[in-house]
Amino acid sequence: MNRAALFDVDGTLADTNHLHVTCWWEALRQAGHTVPMHRVHRALGLPGDDLIAQLLGDDRDKSEDDTLSTAHDTLYGTYFDRLPSFDRAADLLRELDRSGWRVVLVTSANSRELEALKRAIDADDALTATASSDDVTEGKPAPDPVHHALDLAGAAASRAVFVGDSVWDMKAAVRAGVTGVGLLCGGVPRADLAEAGARAVYGDPADLLEHLGSSPLAR
Are 84 and 120 in contact, with CB atoms under 8 Å apart? Predict the structure, then answer.
């Protein structure tokens, strides 16, 4: 049976969370909303509409959601040519590929953002497939993105591990019946990741790679 190593991207393989915080904060500010950056950070990992709902509430004027998302995308797009990946992120993906895992990226980013992130990580040769927010109706923490990734990998949930940096990643993993592994490099505390369902927590991709043999991704 195939084994699937599923990876979130922003904040997990690429050091982009704080860029997203800044871009969402500025998009909201331009529309007249004052939202503390720490609240924006905690909402990262949700699809755009859900993130806006988390920050502005369900009773907001939903007619401006598209404008807010477009403003964020435009601001974030200015960084596309210099998005930073985390140290040894590509090495981690390649090692898993060599070990027989089918590596799939699972992200709330749209396809345009995902292409920029893939260029930053530079490990396309290790990827079996990618799944973006454009591929599912409902994003994390719903299990839909994880189920879609499992289909792409041809793997059962019991033979998969999902690595992410947000509570939404861990909740999606739990709801899909997949083992969740948390990384601290996205800025979410260890206790929050564990409470959301992370089976194990590591510092960053380099730390996970160093301890791969004793992790849920061991051979």
Answer: yes
